[in-house]
Amino acid sequence: MQKRIGQRALTLVAAGIGGAVFLLLGLPLPLLLGPMAGCLAFALGGAPLRDMGVFGTLMRTFLGAAIGASVTPDLVGALPRYGATLALVPLFVLVIGAVGYPFFRRVMGFDHPTAFYSAMPGGLQDMLIFGQEAGGDVRAMSLVHATRVLAIVTALPFLMTLFWGIDLSRPPGAPLASLPPLELALMLIAAVAGWKVGERIGLFGASILGPLILTAALSLAGFIHTRPPAEVIWAAQFFIGIAVGSKYAGITGRELRLFVGAGLGFSALLAVISTAFIELAHLLSPAPALDVILSFLPGGQAEMVVIAIVSGADVAFVVTHHLTRIFLVIFSAPLIGRWLGKT
């Protein structure tokens, strides 16, 4: 217990230093990218970092509540307009798998289950569970997926700031003191209850999807009219940054060369695939370019939600596409993985 506390304290120090540096330098999304960078730097230096456990998961629930609060009657009425771009998502997943699996299997020399579940653009935790059950290398898959998320989530804000002039310094919500206490209480209850009920029934991504469903129900019923306050979203960013950066704890030179190198190579392939689908989706949909871009970049769901909220994108549009992608991967990957393993 004392060892875990010490490791988590060190992790908070690393994240705090990273966040402070990003704030002082005026870099984008300092409370998300700063903790990632700080933890990554400490991990590469051999520091024994550890994620925040249950508390880190709790902070993710507030992003689920933020998404759910964006689900309004107007949004539900607009869902048919998403049809053209949503129809591209299955093909998007298929192309990623068709390119990623041979890359990991033939080029990087991974065994079948490790290659397959490293290539699947689903939720990190779900892919690790499926991959472990199939006999894959959990450490390799963890580092590949963490690198994919890190590469996308780090590059995107800089591109958004430098080339599109998007202001990522705006508050991600209203101040805590300005929100009705009853709505705050309802969002807190929905976040925690949705998470725990989701876990109890075996819902994938329960820490985000459970709160999303309960908060969306409250929003559609007219009980909630706003997102969680800015202070809560900032805190969630901080702990999500820790969750990504701390995955590099204990990394060796071999893992850095092989697994992180594979993750960076895969990220480059994803950039090409995503660009093609973003262009196609932009032609098919009247949605703003920013919404389309955020919808077809396979970063982590929580991380992409943060960027969508801060950038002022249509959170519901973005999340609908990411959830569709994750649903498809969750339900099809185990079946396809077993089939490929027999061929």
Structural topology:
Layout: H1 2-25, H2 30-44, H3 53-69, H4 73-78, H5 83-86, H6 89-107, H7 112-119, H8 124-133, H9 138-162, H10 181-200, H11 206-220, H12 230-245, H13 253-284, H14 289-295, H15 301-311, H16 315-342
Any overview of this molecule?
By secondary structure, this protein is mainly alpha-helical. The chain has one domain. It is built from 16 helices and no strands. Helix 7 packs parallel to helix 9. 50% of the residues are buried.
How many β-strands, per DSSP? 0
**Estimated structural class:** mainly alpha
Total number of helices: 16
Residue ranges: pLDDT <50 for 5 or more in a row?
none
User: In which range does the helix fraction lie?
Assistant: over 70%
Any descriptors?
single chain; mainly alpha; globular; 343 residues; 0% strand
Please sum up the structure shown.
It is built from 16 helices and no strands. The protein has helices spanning 2-25, 30-44, 53-69, 73-78, 83-86, 89-107, 112-119, 124-133, 138-162, 181-200, 206-220, 230-245, 253-284, 289-295, 301-311, 315-342.
